[in-house]
Amino acid sequence: xxxxxxxxxxxxxxxxxxxxxxxxxxxxxxxxxxxxxxxxxxxxxxxxxxxxxxxxxxxxxxxxxxxxxxxxxxxxxxxxxxxxxxxxxxxxxxxxxxxxxxxxxxxxxxxxxxxxxxxxxxxxxxxxxxxxxxxxxxxxxxxxxxxxxxxxxxxxxxxxxxxxxxxxxxxxxxxxxxxxxxxxxxxxxxxxxxxxxxxxxxxxxxxxxxxxxxxxxxxxxxxxxxxxxxxxxxxxxxxxxxxxxxxxxxxxxxxxxxxxxxxxxxxxxxxxxxxxxxxxxxxxxxxxxxxxxxxxxxxxxxxxxxxxxxxxxxxxxxxxxxxxxxxxxxxxxxxxxxxxxxxxxxxxxxxxxxxxxxxxxxxxxxxxxxxxxxxxxxxxxxxxxxxx
Length: 388
Hints:
The mean pLDDT is 93. The chain contains 11 helices and 16 strands. It is globular. Strands 1, 11, 12, 15 and 16 form a 5-stranded antiparallel beta sheet that branches. A 5-stranded mixed beta sheet has the order 8-9-10-13-14, covered by helices on one side. The protein folds into 2 domains: 105-200, PDZ domain (Pdz3 Domain); 208-386, 2-enoyl-CoA Hydratase, Chain A, domain 1 (Alpha-Beta Complex), CATH 3.90.226. By secondary structure, it is an alpha+beta fold. Helix 11 (323-334) links the parallel strand 13 (313-316) and strand 14 (337-340). Helix 6 crosses helix 7 and helix 9 packs parallel to helix 11.
């Protein structure tokens, strides 16, 4: 029996080696760069307007020879964009956490210090007493400034403001397979904390929760479920149970993973009685290829028998991401009040692209998104952020 199993193992190993030889991993590494150049919608964010590159990235690209080295290069190439909305479809056990889904600290560089702008509610950081306004002093034994510089030095790229913010948030969220070692300063005192990564503390929740706020309003809280079709049924049931003129608060403050437009349009459809525009799309790749701009406006339509006469108040925050941000600007277009802090500011709409030989998937923002007034979605500021 042992000999039979050994024979199977040898056959499997030979087959895997043959498959590796048949796949052009090096060609896919070059194809990845070309794919990003042709399809990424925010190339104007690149210093000099060209895809960031360096001797380190060039050497890593040239050394790609198998699936692991291709994925490592893809992760580094995607990181070079300093865009939390761009990710790889595959990952390693020790890959960096995805932001904002698996982050509980929103960090920004302000002058010479790294300030915690927001803390996710009920997260390990919040339970440890970290609050907005605290400073992220160090990552492990290294100051945050040094750690961020090291993050970008490994890619051979200089630190800019956008890269500093991106790198600090990635480092604060940590690697997926281990706890985080962070030193946090609150006023004059510093504490060194060991916090679990959020991959180890995720809980199953229903698509949404409905609670009262004590003043007669019903709060419908979306539990990071904007990509689930079951959320439509749950939302319809919640709305149908309310009087037609009851005040409603739609809480999108825990929707970091985004979702799809069918869920978004289903929610907004309850509050309209005629087709309404809620978001503008632009596809830069087509303009680059043809010289002709492609732009369109997406609408939400009413659904028969499903109507609420009072617009909701919409709550958002740093963990309102992607489709959550789309819903927020959509409700704002309908005339609803959107309140809270700035959102995750995730750029555009993400497309999945498969590399031609290996099939490795990368997810890259390929559309620019705007409010119906033409403001970039990532620049939208809620009413409270405007002082209104």
